[in-house]
Design a protein that fits this description.
about 240 residues, mainly alpha, two-stranded antiparallel ribbon, about 60% helix
Amino acid sequence: MSMRKLRLLFLLAAIAVFRAPVAYAADTWVAPRTVYYLTRQQQQFPELKVPPAVGSKEALADLAAVRDWQQKRTEEQCAKARSEAHAEYDEFFGDISPFPRPLPDGAAAIFKRLKAETDWINVKVKDRFKRPRPFESAPDLKHCLDRIGGPSYPSGHATVARIYALVLSHLVPVRRSEFLARADEAALNRVISGVHYPSDIEGGKKLADAVYARFLKRRTFQADMKSLKGYLSVTALPAAK
């Protein structure tokens, strides 16, 4: 085989590896590499606070919180957490959504785009810290979900839920507290179910705030927000004065 063909094969192999989605063997979801809203450089968030060090006072408090929830959680709480397993828009906000039901296809496509890019950003941060899940660090802890994979910090569910909430708050500002409270509830469900520490949740929220601030400056995001506003239910809009 000629050297030129060898170089071509090497280049094709490198491209294939670069395009491959990130997936964790124990999980059912993948995070495709996507740069629809932010460039690869803009998807870097080195300023995010590192998780508590193993054995530190903060880490021990984290562990105690998960243990406490394991003792007092109910099957109903576990069922609620399982119903949000894929972090889809309807799983978090379906019953309080300001959009018509079922969610219009155009709006659904935008939320899928938001989730895909947020997932990918979150996975890159997770891979930087590689924090084990609570049940991996403490064998006596048992989670009540189905299959869980990937590092623990920051929580992807907390990140995605807050991104959704910030988008909805921008569209319907008078309901901001309601939307953020729902995102907080979804995030807490990950601690209740035993798959995240409280600090994972806080890290996810801070990452979401940073990501959203960058989204707001991008024309592609601004265009999607304008489209979403057009899909709002009439009853979700403020009454004319």
